[in-house]
Amino acid sequence: MTNPDTRPLTIVNHPLVQHKLGLMRDKTTPNAMFRQLLREVGQLLTYPATADLALTTRAIDTPLAPMQAPALAGRRVAIVSILRAGNGLLDGVLDLIPSARVGFIGLYRDEKTLQPVQYYAKLPHPLAPRPVILVDPMLATGNSAVAALDLLKKEGAANLRFLCLLAAPEGVARLHAVHPDVPVITAAVDERLNDQGYILPGLGDAGDRIYGTT
Ligand code: URA
Fold first, then answer.
1. Among residues 6, 28, 62, 113, which one is catalytic?
2. Phi, psi (degrees; rounded to nearest 5) at 80
3. Closest Cα partner for 155 from 106, 98, 103?
4. Which atom of ligand 1 is nearest to the CA of 209?
5. Predicted confidence (pLDDT) per residue in 25-46, tens digit
6. Which helix (H) or strand (E) holds 40?
7. Which residue lies with its CA nearest to atom 2 of ligand 1?
8. Mean pLDDT across the stretch 135-156?
9. Mean pLDDT, to the nearest integer, of 94-121?
10. Which CATH class is domain 9-49+77-211?
11. Contact 184/172 with Cβ under 8 angstroms?
């Protein structure tokens, strides 16, 4: 579904996605189950996130006849995970695109300013010719996503999409204000951010829920 102002926001209302997201929001859901659900939702969100990938054909022989078989065109897809919570989504995306190249951007959020601080980056080379899927479960203030997209564009990426589990309206607005060309694919847009920059009603700290930290 695309939102009415035609900016590239896709909210995946599929019943399986919504059911799994509901389980993930529940604070009694154990970490192992949360991790498994995030992986499954990552797979389901990858389907719409890759719907515009270019196809070509290649000549093959089936057991019965020659044919031109569809195949992804161009360089392998790059999946870039924003550490650390992005890795929970990464596994599901990789399940569907196992040949993808994987990059990592390490950003932590300064709890006072809520601004992202980069401490690590390792990206597939070359990046420019590849479709890039940037993954982070929570699009909250949008600051981390914007910083990561800034870096990816600086490295030449031009065919980008941002995949998240949950977004705040503030995060979607910020991302689209700075990077209007980048489609956002998410399972839901929640009500708002709280004073600490957490999404309400949300699901808490995604990294803590994935890895069992507090
Ligand atoms: N990051 C999280 O993990 N959760 C939020 O609600 C916001 C940012």
1. 113
2. -120, 125
3. 103
4. 3
5. 999 999 999 999 999 999 999 9
6. helix 31-49
7. 205
8. 97
9. 91
10. alpha beta
11. yes
Phi, psi of 138 (to 5 degrees): -120, 120
Residue to mutate (ligand 1; options 34, 198, 209; most atoms within 8 A of CB): 198
CA angle in degrees (0–180, nearest 5) for 77-205-194: 110
Which residues does ligand 1 sit against, CB inside 6 Å?
A: 85, 138, 140, 198-199, 202, 205-207
Predicted structure pTM score: 0.94
pLDDT band at residue 113 under the 50/70/90 scheme? confident
Sorted by where each begins, the domain ranges of the chain are: 9-49+77-211
> What's the pLDDT at 7?
60
Residue whose C-alpha is closest to residue 36's, from 202, 209, 214: 209
**Radius of gyration from C-alpha coordinates of the chain:** 17
The amino acid present at 189, given as its one-letter code, is V
C-alpha span between 53 and 62 (Å, rounded): 24
The DSSP line for 70-99 is EEE-SSPPEEEEEETTHHHHHHHHHHH-TT
- Identity (one letter) of the amino acid at 142? G
Tokens of 87: 């890795």
| 16 CA → ligand 1 middle, Å | 22
| Per-residue pLDDT at 106 exceeds 70 | yes
Residue with tokens 């599929």: 14
C-alpha angle 5/53/136, rounded to 5°? Answer: 65
pLDDT tens digit sequence for 46-101: 999 999 999 999 999 999 999 999 999 999 999 999 999 999 999 999 999 999 99
